[in-house]
Every structure is written in C-alpha cells, then in structure tokens.
Amino acid sequence: MKYTVDKKGFYGKYGGAFVPEMLFPNLDELEKNYNKIINDKEFQNDYNNLLRDYVGRPTPLFFAERLSEKYKCKIYLKREDLCHTGAHKINNTIGQILLAKRLGKKRIIAETGAGQHGVATATVCALKGIECVIYMGAVDIKRQAPNVARMKMLGASVVAAESGSKTLKDATNEAIRDWINNPITTHYIIGSVVGPHPYPDMVAKFQSIVSEEIKAQLLEKENTQNPNYLLANIGGGSNAAGLYYNYLENENVKIISVEAAGEGVKSGKSAATSVLGKTGIIHGSKTLLMQTNDGQIIEPYSISAGLDYPGVGPLHAHLLESKRAEFMSITDSDAMLAGLEVSKLEGIIPAIETAHAFAAFKYLDFKTNDIVVVNFSGRGDKDLDTYIEYFNL
Amino acid sequence: MKYTVDKKGFYGKYGGAFVPEMLFPNLDELEKNYNKIINDKEFQNDYNNLLRDYVGRPTPLFFAERLSEKYKCKIYLKREDLCHTGAHKINNTIGQILLAKRLGKKRIIAETGAGQHGVATATVCALKGIECVIYMGAVDIKRQAPNVARMKMLGASVVAAESGSKTLKDATNEAIRDWINNPITTHYIIGSVVGPHPYPDMVAKFQSIVSEEIKAQLLEKENTQNPNYLLANIGGGSNAAGLYYNYLENENVKIISVEAAGEGVKSGKSAATSVLGKTGIIHGSKTLLMQTNDGQIIEPYSISAGLDYPGVGPLHAHLLESKRAEFMSITDSDAMLAGLEVSKLEGIIPAIETAHAFAAFKYLDFKTNDIVVVNFSGRGDKDLDTYIEYFNL
Amino acid sequence: MNRIDNTLNKEGKLLSIYFTAGHPNLNDTVDIILKLQESGVDMIEIGLPFSDPLADGPTIQDSSTVAIKNGMNTNVLFEQLNGIRNRVSIPLIIMGYFNPILQFGVEEFCKKCNQVGIDGLIIPDLPIDYYEENYKSIFKKYKIYNMFLIAPQTSDERIKKIDSISDGFIYMVSSSSITGSKESFSSKQLEYFERINKMNLKTPRITGFGVGNKDTFNAAVNYSKGAIIGSAFIKNLESNGLKSIERFIKNIRI
Amino acid sequence: MNRIDNTLNKEGKLLSIYFTAGHPNLNDTVDIILKLQESGVDMIEIGLPFSDPLADGPTIQDSSTVAIKNGMNTNVLFEQLNGIRNRVSIPLIIMGYFNPILQFGVEEFCKKCNQVGIDGLIIPDLPIDYYEENYKSIFKKYKIYNMFLIAPQTSDERIKKIDSISDGFIYMVSSSSITGSKESFSSKQLEYFERINKMNLKTPRITGFGVGNKDTFNAAVNYSKGAIIGSAFIKNLESNGLKSIERFIKNIRI
Ligand SMILES: Cc1ncc(COP(=O)(O)O)c(C=O)c1O
Ligand SMILES: Cc1ncc(COP(=O)(O)O)c(C=O)c1O
C-alpha cells in the first residue's frame, strides 16, 4: 500500500506526531485503540446507523447534465452538501464522537475556521449529550456569526482564540493547549486530515465512506466502479481524502486536487500550499507548509475560510510528491464565478470551498467519455453573505 | 376514500376552483392531465430518479433517543430538513417542473413567503434551464435577504409584491395575476396544498412520498407500518399532507396538526386558522380562512414566515371538520423554546415552522409505547437571524 | 326580463362604467351613480371592494384598499343604495369577489339586491358549475341576473355552454389579462373579437378589461353590444374628482 | 561531559531561567544573559521564538510574537550569541520548537550551537523516537545535549526509557498544563513529584511549567535538582525591565 499510513504514522516522509510530551499519552491511547475500535462490529453498526439515519447517507451521486454538456465530459457530483449540517465534515465527527465515548471521554473540544467543523462537532455532542467547547479565532467569530449562533443553539461553548492572527491556525493552537490542560477527560476532534498521527489516518478513514459509496453508485450508473478522474478541493484535505481513499492504489483513476490561490499564487495573499509550501511541522504533523525562511508559519489567505489553512494533510503532501495527485491553484475570482455557474446550471449553490473544484474545469481538457467525479463537499448557505457582497446580489 | 379529493375537486365541502374565467383553461388543462402524467411510467422514473439523486431521498426516519426519553414515548423524525434546499418543499417543485415540461411550458412562476418555496422553485428551474419568476412580498424581500440572494444565484427573477400588506398573501395574488396575463407559456408552481383544484391534490400527491417512505422505514424499525401518531406543523399544509397521505384512510393512526398561534390565539396577532377561521374563499379555494365579518381576508401573524398564512389547504379544513385530525395552536414563544430544545437534545436545528410541531409535546400525553412520527419539515438555517435575536445568541 | 335586458334591447352601443364603492370617499357611491346616469351612461357596475382582488390590476386593487379603509363593506353599500331606485333608472350591477358575498350569505345578498333594486351580479371567481348547482335557484327567486365572463382562452364549447345559461349579457374579457386600461387593442385581440362574433351567440356581449378611451371603446363595440370602462374611470376620478365625470364620459362618447 | 553535567553535579538546587530571545527588544539577548549570570542563576534557556508555540501559555506566546516582530530569527540569534562564551560560563540551552530548527537544518543548527557555545537543546515537539532515528548522531557529533520532557501522564515505562537515553537532565513538566506561572502546587502535583522521585532515575530532573515564585521554586526543588522559571520572569521583564532582573532572582533565592 503505497499511499496509506505506515506503522510509524508516516506517508512517505510526511506525517508523524510532533507533539509535546504532555500529549503523548493521549495520542498513544488513540493510536493504540483507533483501529481496533473502528473495526469493531458494534462500532461499525453504530457508525453506519448514524450515517444513515442521522447524517442522511448514502449521499447521492448526481449526474450533472448541464455541466457535463458545457465541459464535454461526464460530470458526477458526490452530494456531501446534502449531509446533515451541510458538508462532509460530519462523517468525521460522527466517527470521532462514537470513538470518544468508547474511550470514556466526557468532554469534546474542536477547532473551527468557517465554523463548519465546529457546527458538525457541536451537533454530535448535542446528539450524545456531551460537553463541547469550540475554539474559533476572534476574527472568524465576528465574520461567521451565523455558524457561531448555530453552535450556541446546539449547546456548545465557543471560545475566542485571541492569539496570533486570531483565525483557524490560532484556534487550532488553542484547542491543542486545552487538550494539554485536560488530557484525561477530553477528546480533541480534529476537523481535517491534519494534526499528529493518528488523526490524518483516522479522519481519512471516517471520510472514506465517500469513495466507498461512489464505487457502488458508479457501478450502477456507468457499469464500472472506477471514474477516470477524481476532483476535490483541498483545505486540510479531508473531503479530498474521503473521495480518493478507496481509489488511491488504483493508479488508473487520476486525481486532481484543487487548492485556493487566493488573489493569486504570487500575490502574497494565497493559500496555495503545493506551490508556496516547504516541508515543515505544523500542528504536530510534518507536511507541506507555508512558512518564512526561518520556519515561522505564514498566515494564508483565501476568500474561502475552509481553504484558508497554511498546510495540507501529510497524505496530500505525499500524493503530490509521489505525483499520484496533480495539484491546481484557483483564485478567489475564478472560484466565485464557478460558484455562480454551478448554481445557475444545476440548481445547487456550492460552498466557496467546493466552488474551487468546479473552477478547475475551464483549465482542464477531458475526453467526452471521461467520467469525472467531483466531491461536492458542502453547500453554499454559509457563504451567502460573501456571494451577496461579491456579486452585489 | 373519505379523505381524498372528489371528482369535482372537493374535500367534503372544501376545495373547488374559485377562479376567474381567464384561469379556467389553465386549470382545466392541469386537471385533465395531472393524474395521467403523474401516473405515467416515464414520469415516475424521472421523478423518482431526481428525488433520489438530486433531492437526496429517501430522507431518513431518525429515532430521537433523547427527545423520546424526555417525552416518554417513541419519537421518530422524518428528516425532510435533509432534502436539497433544506425543506420538504422541493418534493413538490421537482414534480411540478417535470409536469410543466410535459405540458410544454416555457416559463415558471411561483409565490413565496419565507423564500423556501421560492428557492425550491428557482432550484428546479435552474436544473431544467427554464425561466423563473418568483413573487415575494416587498416586506418579505427585506426580511429574508439570504433566500432572495439564493434565488438570484439560481438565476431567478424576484419580483416584489407591493400591494396589500406586501407579504405572502399578496405575493400569491401577484403570481395569480401573472398567470392570468401569461396563460399559455407559463406554469404556476404553487408551494402548498392550497389554491384552486387540482393544486391541493397535486401537491399532496407530490408530497406523499414522505409517508410512503415512512411505511417502509417503520416496518424495518418497529415491525409495523403504522405509527400511533403523526404530528406536523401546518402553514398551507403541504408537509402535513405528505406525512398523512398514505395513512388518511387508516383511522388507527391519529393525526395532530399544529398551527401557529403567534402571540396567542386571542391576541389579534395569530395565524391559528382552525380556531379563528371561518369557511371562505382564498386563492381560488374554499376553505377555512381568517377573515373579517365582511369577508375581507385578515393578515395573519406568526414569528414563522412559513406558517404566516391566513388559511389552510382544503384537505386540512376537511380533516378538522370530520375530526380526522386534531388541531393545536402553538405560540411564538413555545415554538422558539422547542426549537432550542430540539437543537440541544438532538443536534438538529429545526426551522421555526418545524419547531411548532415539537412544542406540542409538552401539552400531549403519550403512552410509553406510542410511536410518534414528527415531520421534520425543514432546517433552521433560514431562521438563524430570528433565533439569534430572540435568544440573544 | 329585467332592466338589463331592456337596456340590451336598446338600439346602439352601450357604455357601462365600473367604479369601486367607497372610493375615493366612503359616501361618494350615490353621487357617482347619479352623475354617471346624468352623463348618459347605459349601465353601472358597482364594485364591492375585496381585500384580495386577484383578477384586477393595481388601479382597482388600490381603490379597493382605500374603500375598505374608508369603511366600505357589504352592509354599508346596501345602506347607501337604499332608495337609489327613486333616482336611478339604468341597470345597476354589483361586481364583487365571491368571499364577501358568501360571508353575507348568498341568499341574503340576493334578497338585499332585490330590495334596493340591483339588477345583476358579476362574480369573477364564482365558477359556473358551482353556481348552477348551488345558487342558481336563489338568483332566480330574487330575479338577480348573474353574468359570466369569457376570455380569449375560453374554448368554443365552453362559450356555447355559457351562452346557453347566461342571463343578460356575457362579460367578454378583452385579453388574457388582469384589469387595467390599454391604449389600443392588438391584432390578436381583434381576431379574438371577430372569432366570437362569428359564433352568433344568443346572448349579447359586453367587452371589458382594457377599455379606457374613445379608441378602445369604439373598437370594442365594433364587435359587441357595449363595453365597460373601469380602471381608466377610477384613475380619472382619483385625479380630477367627481366633477370630471361628465367630461370623461363625453370624451368616450364623442 | 559538558557544562550542563558540571552544573548538575554541583551541590544544592539549581535555578534556571527561560526567556524569549528578542524580547522585550531585539538586542536584549546578551544583556539578559549577562544579568542572569551576574544574579547567580545556574542555567539559562534561551527561547528561539516560534509563531505557533502550542505548548506555551499567553505570556510566552506574546513574547514570541513580539520577538518575531522585532526581527528575531535563528540567524540573528546565533549572531547575537557569537562570542558569548567569552563572557558567560554557565550552561546555555536553546529551547525552541522543531520547525525553525528543521528549516535551518538540524545539522547546521547543531554546528552553530557548538560554535557559539550552546550546551544543549530542548525541543518540546521533537518526539524521542524520531530524534533517535534521525538526529541523535548529529547531536553527538556536535556535542549538543538534547533534553526530553516528562509529564504527569507519562507512563512509568516511558519515563524509564527517557531516563535511559537522556543527556543532562530530564525536563519534568509540573502539571498537565501549558506554561504559565501558578501560585502554588496542588496536592496532586506533589504526589506526582513524589512518585517520580521514588523511581530513582539515573538522570537528574529539573522541574518546569508553573514555577514562578519562591514558594513554587522551593516546592519544586524539594523533589528535583532544580527548577525553571519562564513566564513569571518574562512578565517581570515586561513590567520592570532588565534592571529588575537581579531583584527578581534574589526574591526567588532568598
Ligand atoms: C464545504 C467544505 N469543503 C471543504 C472544506 C475544506 O476542508 P477539507 O480540505 O478538510 O475537506 C471545508 C472546511 O471547512 C468545507 O466546509
Ligand atoms: C420548513 C417549513 N415547514 C413548513 C412550512 C409550511 O408549509 P406547509 O404547511 O405547506 O408545509 C414551510 C413553508 O415555507 C417551511 O419552509
């Protein structure tokens, strides 16, 4: 298995668990138990039942007729936007809350940027009646008021991260600090395939349901389990990991990962880690990372809060390095236009994160028969204010 | 069949098509064709495929453990909130757009209050590439800005209704006027089981998928197709109609319909048609209607825009009169508290319309074994501003 | 035979005027009727205002809103019309949506009409079948005519049926359109007028919707016994007051 | 044997001070070191600032932010430390997160440390196994000690392993907690100190995190060879400047 995590928690040279000793026992506990728990039949049962009855899985694989016509290939949308709370994020939080319960944890913490992962975490905590604290940058709290309100309605405490640039990166630092301070009672639900081992692998496994479903759905629709292309946006990379997971070892299925270029890769306001990043350590993981020459982490920029992260998960760093995945960088303006186009052609308003993936089409050249599956990672409701302002709606 | 529409378009003494002659041909065309089209195999195919791959059906039937514990009965939630666009409304618009295409219509109009039906209509028009005009009260346009933006993103024109109180009732008048002016090219997609025959029956049929799914789902979960109670909120009554449809003739299944009392049934600010209404004609239908002694329609009030309608569909008037359904009226404040409670206990933020149904629980006394299915008609994202303001979140 | 038939049997083309009772002022009703009769109008439709007049354009809708605010309602209208027959001899028709009539009680309404001397009703949202089944006998009992509408999309078959059951006249709606005056008729409308003309209906037709000036009046009566002016009259009333009624009618009739 | 061992071999309890290089002002580094040595401090941890110091509390985080803004970075620090060994004889340790060191190049970093006379490193987020596999030989080559942390949740087994591979001392984190001074230790913390004490480790321990005044210092050194003060020292520096260093140290050592 070239693309799955090795015994030491690495994907090639990326990954690992670069954390202070205080966190070692927590990660050790997780690492020793996560595979056992995930593979446990009763866990599988609980997990699958919740995915079905609570999250609304399987999510459809929708043939996008009008987009297909425009881009002259067969475009299928994996409708994660239809998941409860509006994005793929909840596949992971459902898995982790069940795991946390089995580990006897009494308290959940999480970081969030745009608030999607925060909402997905607050949601499963409400469902299971577990205390929930969400760390969110003070700046993000201001600009994502509706998601903050959702978390509060769900009974979570939202704590402002006042350090650094007061956005996602700093919220993550604060969550890790909380975990250091509360190592026994608390489980930390990380929201993407980032952070120290075993998080990237664990989150990828919980997201892998996406490609598992696609295999069956494509078989029914196209008489093959395998598309020609998979296309996903990448923030930390969890929706992409879910989309790719069951296809990683099948190199006939090509992978295109779309990052946020912000105002342009060279503009100084970008989140295009594949271009701008160098190997480094962020949030306990060795991966590609936007940083100064001295190794200080650079605050990224994207119009989309979910892609506004200075790194990518170690799996994706490995996929890039090994050329298993091709990376593209999409600017704010391309993404916004693509969001509008998808809305008008298919009647589905995408999250701006998701819109980045669609913006790639105009730069790609597919064959008429190519089956291209796009992970429709989330719905655009959370982004309406941005769309309204941008397009003066 | 005591509770289905008769040949003349009536439910008991309610229903009919009280429309100006100019609309007779349109309704006649619909009335002559709708059953034929709906029962057509190819139509069924198209409809079911879109419900599955686009809307995300079947929606789950979720056992709400913590609510069940609190209210000492078995509470199941029919998760219409997971439908594409966030409410049951799209079941109907999918059906009607396919019907309109088969009738050769080139243009769609609709009315909307909160904007949910407007969004659901704009969505299917985008999907099918058909021109779409949405009428919305000028007052509602101001207070539901995000849904207005969604409609615009989806390519629809939103036209302000400037007459009367500039809310849903007036938007409906304007839509009907548009239809009078464009009788041949245009199909009018009504958003609830209201309006002239055959709309109430047609919309109920498109929503009946809800109870059709429940039968199979309950059988799997409870080894019976039949719950003891069905519980739904009623604006015009389309989500309720869908929930009840396949159980109407089975009188062992009890029906509870929950209306909006606004600030109280006697406060002068209410939408409790079952209490305050008398038989009258609104939007082409004979039904229960809030009106002055002279027969002028009274503007209703509810904190929930979707329940803010001065009538109910004729089916519901009939269910009330024949005592097939029990009606309850729930105030704004009860509904808001119930919305918060459901969020905190189950991790699902309900639309305020939906919250009305949950508020009924504290006034009801079920047996421990009673199976109560609540139609979770929509998600609360559209109502966040109201929740934020109300609870000072 | 009632006053409507007598008028329809007259030579020449008929001018009928619609206005909303209670507008511009609550107590203008009788004055407007008197002035219309003085000005030589042949027939009058008195609009009973309704909060949600869905076949009407903005002018009539607004006048209805004002009228209701002014205090107009069914009882008030009948009070105002009490004794009108001492002063007015031309046919008087009440035009109103069904709900206010239903609330008043259809029989009670017809009885009152009979008492005050109303000759007929136009109820745009009362379907023919429903009328025939439920109310026809009541109308007959009180000798109140019920006039039906036909519109461009109405099928020939249905027109024939309407013709066969009609009292008085058929209200021929000039276009697929809500009320509101137009500058002229389109060729499509004229075709439609022509088509109906050729059907040789037994019942005379009065054209309404979109008639608002001398030109449209003349065009309309080319194909029918008469025409009804509504929105244009109301607009004039609003701008120029009751004193302008005579001039408005003269300008049509020139 | 390096300076660290010599110091650990001294009689009595050791006071070690952490400060962030480049804070409060970019060029304070050498002055602070000199003043600390003058005040009788036994060992110094020079913090190489990092943008995202996730084991640290607000005081150290803020000082790091200021230091980076002031222009501190790895090159600048080594320049400032150039020649320090002409004036300072106590052990100097650089404490910093792994990423800046990785970017500089681990070998290059160790070489520089050796050149300027740094005795050891504390890299809180460099895992033991990864160090052993990849960097141990480099550290050895340049005679740089690498000190590891233990914390209350660290298992006995793991503590024993750390003991077996440690150079110099074990950095005993006083509580499950990020850095930041406390008024006193809890009974739970004392129990933990006691437990570790009883393990009879070969490597001496220096207690850190939450040591900030005379009381906590004395309590800590009751169970270990010495203690490190960080946040409390930085706070004092911020409020009272470099001139207050001597008094601050005296107050601990009284
Ligand atoms: C809808 C949506 N898509 C994508 C992302 C990016 O995260 P990831 O790369 O982990 O999928 C986010 C993060 O918030 C999101 O909300
Ligand atoms: C979520 C939701 N529930 C209920 C309703 C009420 O409509 P109906 O009674 O037709 O289901 C609406 C109308 O907008 C709605 O959006």
Structure characterization notes:
The complex is a heterotetramer, with 2 copies of chain A (393 residues) and 2 copies of chain C (254 residues). Helix content of chain A is 42%, strand content 18%. Chain A is of the alpha/beta class and 393 residues long. Chain A folds into 2 domains: 20-50 and 89-203, Rossmann fold; 59-86 and 208-391, 3-Layer(aba) Sandwich (Rossmann fold). With 254 residues, chain C is of the alpha/beta class. At the A-B interface, helix 2, strand 3, helix 5, helix 7 and helix 14 of A face helix 2, strand 3, helix 5, helix 7 and helix 14 of B. Bound molecules: pyridoxal-5'-phosphate (PLP) (2 copies). One pyridoxal-5'-phosphate binds at residues 87, 89, 114, 116-117, 192, 233-240, 306-307, 351, 353-354, 377-378 of chain B.
Which helices and strands occur, and which strands form pairs?
The complex is a heterotetramer, with two copies of chain A (393 residues) and two copies of chain C (254 residues).
Chain A (H helix, E strand, L loop, with lengths): L9 E2 L2 E2 L8 H16 L1 H15 L5 E3 L1 H7 L2 E5 L10 H14 L4 E6 L3 H13 L2 E7 H6 L1 H9 L3 E5 L6 H14 L4 E3 L10 H9 L1 H14 L6 E5 L4 H7 L9 E9 L10 H4 L1 E5 L2 E5 L24 H8 L3 E7 H15 L5 H8 L11 E5 L8 H8 L2
Parallel strand pairs in A: 4-14, 5-6, 5-8, 6-7, 9-10, 9-14, 10-13
Antiparallel strand pairs in A: 1-2, 3-4, 11-12
Helix pairs in contact in A: 2-4, 4-5, 4-9, 5-7, 9-11, 10-11, 14-15
Chain C lengths: L2 H7 L4 E7 L8 H10 L4 E6 L9 H13 L3 H8 L10 E5 L1 H7 L1 H11 L3 E3 L5 H7 L1 H6 L3 E3 L1 E2 L5 H10 L4 E4 L13 H11 L7 E4 L5 H9 L3 E4 L1 H10 L4 H9 L1
Helix pairs in contact in C: 5-6
The complex binds pyridoxal-5'-phosphate (2 copies).
